[in-house]
Amino acid sequence: MASTTQPSALEPIHQFDLSGQYAQIGPEIREVVERVLASQQLVLGKEVAAFEKELAEFCGVAHGVGVANGTDALILALRACNIYAGDEVLIPTLTFVATASAVNALAAKPVFADVDRITLNLDPADVRRRITPRTKAIIAVHLHGLPADMDPLREIAKEHKLPLIEDNAQAIGASYKKRYTGSLADIACISFYPTKNLGAAGDGGMIVTNSLELDTRLRTLRNHGQASRYVSAEPGWNSRLDEIQAAILRVKLRHLRTWQKARQTNATKYSNLLSAVPGIRTPFVPEGYEHVFHQYTIRSDRRDALQKFLTDRKIGTQIYYPIPLHLQPLYANLGHKRGDFPNAEHVADEILSLPMYPELSADKIERVTSAIAEFARQ
Ligand SMILES: Cc1ncc(COP(=O)(O)O)c(C=O)c1O
Which of 132, 221, 237, 274 is the most exposed place for a label (fewest CB within 10 A)? Predict the structure, then answer.
């Protein structure tokens, strides 16, 4: 049956929208920006130090080191774990390219592992199969806000004496067996890209760890390898978090648990409304995991047609990520082909992330799910 609502008359529903958040906290943000500008202390000052402490506490670890973005956080964490040219680093093939390009930035080699078909996160059994004598670290990505299965990964890392790194760009605040992401490995990397659950007004990143040794090395690596002023112990980078971003992120951190609950409530509404829709699979959250729904990602074997159907009804969606890394032109030199990582390839053809942000209204969720149900009836 044809829809009675004319799509052209509908207000667009964006896949992500920060305007509601800014309307809520604009005055708080402007106050702290003014405070930093008045202080004229602009890089690695009091705000960064306070934010490092607050975010480490939020993750349940001892140390936080503010850096310029999440990609730098990965590069610096890898170097702090002694990754050098030619080393192999195991990563999932279904992730944002930054997880791999951070490895390339050190002239090391990303080695891909397949993901689990249900959780979309690293499959520990495949990680184990791909370890070689050149493997020097493992990076687990908590995709879409759901923690990876860290216990078996920790076991594999321990057995092979490998550092285990969390790419926690997408799952700040999530938990696994009662422990927060960021505290589940040797070291964890966070991105504050504006669309993240904790987003800056620009770029920012942090590395969190319980190790004082790693913390000390990271502080020198982010500042030209200077162990003390104008004394450089090793080659480093300029990767510093600035005071304005830190001050804004401190404001937002105070709201993060509330926003996280709102995302989870929205996810529950979506899942309830979609549970009986044929051909649609809603996200699965294993027992003992807390998902923070950076993305609410459904599965459909008619994904491309569904995406077009929703676009025609002014409903924004995204695919995170449509091409697994082993099939990216960037990694053609690694010689992979279709069929090498069957789970990642399969899910990459099915996944579709629906509109998701804390302020998303029940009406909009209803409109999205009604459109999906209408598509399913065709
Ligand atoms: C999984 C993952 N890793 C790394 C990054 C890189 O973070 P950034 O954009 O802050 O460099 C991102 C986000 O963009 C990401 O989603």
Answer: 132
